[in-house]
Amino acid sequence: MRGWLPWLLLAVTPSVAAAGWRLGGTAEVATAVQTTDGHGQKAELTLLPDLEWRSPWGFDVTAVARLRTDALDRLEPGRLDRDSYDAWSRPHALGSNGELALRELYADIYLGPLYLRAGKQQIVWGKADGLKLLDRINPQSFREFILPDFEDSRIPQWSLRAEFPLGPVWQAQLIAIPDVTVDALPPPDGAFAITAPELVPVPPPGVRVRQQPADAPRNRLADGDAGAQLSAFIGGWDLTLNYLYHYVDRPAFPRAAADEGITVTPRYYRTHTVGGSAANAIGDFTLRSELAYATHRRLIAADPRDADGVIDSREASAVLGLDWMGLSDTIVSAQLFASWVDLSEGAATRDRVEWDVTQLVERSFRNETLTLRSQLIHDINAGDGLLRASLSYDYRADLVLRLGADVFYGPSNGRFGQFDQRDRVTVSITYGF
User: Fold this and answer.
1) Which of 99, 234, 342, 356 has the fewest C-beta atoms lying within 10 Å of its C-beta?
2) pLDDT tens digits along 159-211
3) Which of the four CATH numbers 3.40.50.1000, 3.60.70.12, 2.40.160.100, 1.10.10.10 does domain 2-10+21-432 have?
4) Beta-strand relationship, 399-409 and 225-234
5) Which pTM was predicted?
6) 107-130 as b/e, with b when 16 or more CB fall inside 10 Å?
7) What is the pLDDT of residues 50-73, one digit of tens each?
8) Contact, 217 vs 246, CB < 8 A?
9) E strands present in 135-192
């Protein structure tokens, strides 16, 4: 019965709202065809109705649902990864290739200088684009790897966010998340099944592997996440200081010897993440930077003789970005990412220091009705990456046509090169109502 409570709240909101509510949303038809073999990758219909209610009592309510069905069913064949969701956040399966989900349901409450947002929501930290450093609060769905926008791939969680001034300059944000949802990974037979040895362990040839049920967080209070952010605007700089006590949403894979081969148990671990961000607009340029340090990271051991196959490590990461808007209707952006891990316990399947670079160029034409966008994400160490291009046409204010291409390249054991056979052309039509 508890699982239906959010849907009951969504259903009764309009009747309570009287004249203070607005109903809208989007409908999108999207298809993707692999260029390597001509096979269809998806043929998807997505409805995103949203409801807003402005109450006369000092708070507003927002609700967003998602109905999604894929006629080809090749991203998550025959099933949805529902075990990674908290019972209160879990989408409802519609047959073998559809789902109905309550994406967001939250109330904005204003109490003098105190602002509260309570309910199912996304909480975004950081200023990086394309790859994540501080944006680790909400878990992510990897059914299409990192191709969807972060707003669409983040999994909203039941959370409480409080914001209030802390003196004349600083603003404080406190968050509490009694929701144990973790990353939703694609199944082994999905189009974007993860195979890179840096991300998932590869058993030695001829060794029998038995995978045990995941040892995941279950208790919403004891296993919930919490964090704090301080933000300020000082001397032209937009600054934040961040702290998050959380489970890493992607599992480690410790192994143990068994009578016939080995057993692997996906397991989630706690960590403390501290960091900050800074941004400043200087003429036509915007300089962005971000730092993050995680006290615990579990890496995959490179030595197949390692006892449990896991290296206990720490990670420090940083990004430096520069945006240029010197031409009208044009944005040019470049970012340099660096990630360092402690390998004092032994070698891992990733390098001690990894470098990534991204580049984004976006230009609008014809009074911003036509937008051309290209983005490159390149792993300097492995020599692989992702090149994306899209052309969007705002045919009307409520109708957008989009043509795109996603091209992976590099060695098959790289984070991006593992999908070298998943290059695709995409077409979508989005209607707002």
Assistant:
1) 234
2) 999 999 999 999 999 999 999 999 999 999 999 999 999 999 988 777 888 88
3) 2.40.160.100
4) unpaired
5) 0.91
6) bbbeeeeebbbbbbbbbebbbbbb
7) 999 998 888 899 999 999 999 999
8) no
9) 157-166, 170-177
